[in-house]
Amino acid sequence: MNPSPLFPSPRFSRGRLALFGLLLLAGALYVGCSGGGGEERTPQTTATPSEEPGTPRPPDTQAAIRVFQSFVEAVQAGDLDKAWALYAASIEGTTEEHNAAFGCDYGAFSFEFPRMQHLFGRVAPFEVTETYGAAPGSLVIEMRLAGADGSSFLGTTVRVRPTEEYRVQFLNSGDVVKVPGAPDPQPSPDDPTGICGIWTGAR
Question: Of 3, 44, 152, 193, which is the most exposed, with the fewest CB atoms less than 10 Å away?
Fold first, then answer.
């Protein structure tokens, strides 16, 4: 009896299955050897620079001193934008926003800028006589400064983020206010008022 076309013989079915299996094996070998043409590879996940956590910078008194000196030089040169960039409250590339936890806004800084020029014109250059804050993990470096006119100051630099360079946050006499909540005697009219943390008064 001849096999029906609807029910092929077992030999014919086994032959077709064997051929189909060989084709599948050849295809798998081709994909494996060719690397899948690049489409089937598992993508490697790498963080973009903005996503990388970075390594916190260790305390560095010399770097802090250089930043403070650069700030003073920028003020003396009349470079408002550079001085603002070296100020702790500044946010890179913006003057509309600022980090209020670290100082005044750009408008107040601009108002104080000529007063800073007046102050630095009288007391700069500064001599660093002592530094504080170089303990491991510290983000703040303070420096005791002697002005050219013999006055004494305390300068404070801070890493706003642990991976960043230092920026200037405060410059003051280093003295504590005599009566909490009450202003000490005001500076001369041409000197900074202290609204940005940079002045001749107490901290």
Answer: 44
Q: Could you please report the per-residue DSSP string of 116-153?
A: HHHHHHHHPSPEEEEEE--STT--EEEEEEE-TTS-EE
- In the block, tokens 């300068």 appear at 155
Between the CA atoms of 18, 19, 22 and 23, what dihedral angle is there, to the nearest 10 degrees? -140
> pLDDT of 19-56, one tens digit each?
445 545 555 544 444 444 444 443 443 333 333 468 99
Q: Is 91 helix (H, G, I), strand (E, B) or coil?
A: strand
Region of 35 please: left (phi>0), alpha (psi -120 to 50) or beta.
left
Instruction: Find residue 85's DSSP bridge partners.
Output: none
Distance from C-alpha of 54 to C-alpha of 124, rounded to nearest angstrom: 36
Per-residue pLDDT reduced to its tens digit, 109-156:
999 999 999 999 999 999 999 999 999 999 999 999 999 999 999 999
| 171, two tokens | 């410059």
Cβ pair 128, 139 in contact under 8 A = no
Query: Can you tell me the distance from the alpha carbon of 125 to that of 64, in angstroms, rounded to the nearest whole number?
Result: 16
Tokens of 76: 């003396």
pLDDT at 1 over 60: no
